[in-house]
Specification:
By secondary structure, the chain is an alpha/beta fold. It folds into two domains: 4-15 and 87-218, Rossmann fold (3-Layer(aba) Sandwich); 17-85, DNA polymerase, domain 1 (Orthogonal Bundle), CATH 1.10.150. It has helices at residues 17-30, 37-41, 48-58, 65-82, 95-104, 118-125, 148-157, 171-179, 190-193, 208-214, and strands at 4-7, 108-112, 133-135, 164-168, 183-187, 198-200. Helix 9 (190-193) links the parallel strand 5 and strand 6 (198-200). Helix 1 (17-30) packs across helix 4 (65-82) and helix 3 (48-58) crosses helix 4 (65-82). The longest helix has 18 residues, at 65-82. The protein starts with a strand and ends in a 5-residue tail after the last helix. The structure holds 1,6-di-O-phosphono-beta-D-glucopyranose (B16) and magnesium ion.
Length: 219
């Protein structure tokens, strides 16, 4: 039986990808590195240090580990500053409605994000109240596609993986959910999240009604 839901943040609850893009772009420009939206897509759901390594490799740049950490820190300062512009109007369509319904129906709810800035984002959205547990980039050391962040959330909720549905927009996020034995709802195109148990083009379509209909016998 499904008793809980675990949500990714960026691309599921809100679209911080645009703010990540702007911050990486400022940093890349300062380094004379090429960085565009196509490359930004490859950073979806990927941790901060893995992200800067992808950008460095793309630019064939030789950078010491110490310098890389410094650059990632600089990007993060720009990104965190930009989070102040997020308001409760910035939920992805359908996300707040779903979270509200889950509360009404007494499901347990956790966040399972790679971001170390999750709490700040949830505060800006006024969304902390919808979550029983916040699992984020500070909660585990192994990032997606390892299942650790979702296992952390399930354990803290007191649930087994097979009692939880994970919502994810990243390829590695669906891999992580499946590796952990969770049911997975993919948000986005077939080529990215087609390996989920069920896929929707957007959060607006991934309603509780649709998900219950699909996993019928589990509710
Ligand atoms: P931070 P998610 C991910 O969020 C983003 O999609 C990814 O672009 C970012 O690099 C990562 O969080 C780490 O974020 O630098 O704030 O720790 O999709 O896992 O909610
Ligand atoms: Mg995401």
């Amino acid at each position: 039986m499904i008793k809980g839901f675990i949500f990714d943040l960026d691309g599921v609850i809100t679209d911080t990808a645009e703010l990540h893009f702007q911050a990486w772009k400022i940093l890349s420009d300062s380094m004379n590195w090429e960085f565009d939206r196509e490359l930004n897509e490859r950073l979806r759901g990927v941790s901060r240090m893995d992200s800067i390594n992808i950008i460095r490799e793309h630019n064939n740049a030789e950078v010491s580990e110490e310098k890389l950490v410094e650059l990632a820190t600089r990007k993060n300062e720009i990104y965190v500053d930009s989070l102040n512009q997020i308001t409760p109007k910035d939920y992805l369509p359908g996300a707040q409605e779903l979270l509200t319904l889950l509360r009404q129906e007494s499901f347990l709810v956790a966040l399972g994000s790679a971001s170390k800035n999750s709490t700040k984002v949830l505060q800006q959205l006024d969304a902390v109240k919808y979550f029983d547990i916040i699992g984020d980039g500070n909660s585990v050391s192994k990032s997606k596609p390892a299942p650790d962040i979702f296992l952390f959330g399930a354990e803290r909720l007191g649930l087994k993986p097979e009692e939880c549905i994970v919502y994810e927009d990243a390829e590695a996020g669906i891999d992580a959910a499946k590796a952990g034995g969770f049911y997975a709802v993919g948000i986005g195109p077939e080529e990215r999240v087609g390996h989920a148990d069920i896929r929707f083009d957007s959060m607006a379509r991934a309603t509780l009604f649709e998900v219950k209909s699909h996993f019928n016998e589990l509710f």
